[in-house]
Write a structure and sequence with these properties.
Layout: H1 17-22, H2 28-31, H3 35-63, H4 69-79
Length: 81
Amino acid sequence: MNPSDSGAQRPVDEHDALTMILRAPPPPGIAALPSESRDDLAALVEEVTRKRIEELTVAALGALDNVPVFLRGAVRKAVGL
């Protein structure tokens, strides 16, 4: 009988890529996936996070177009851009 058939959960590696990205152990259903699948999921999460950061940065810089020119420097500094 396979341990995964019995409902037993395998221990989560603290240095697993997905665990490091999430900064917490993954949910039991995700933790039960083979390590290759978890690594693929970790890569996808990293890619989406990086893309989201880029899009938010572009949107924030685009929003500065609505701020008067003489205030843009102060607004950039205030929001950390």
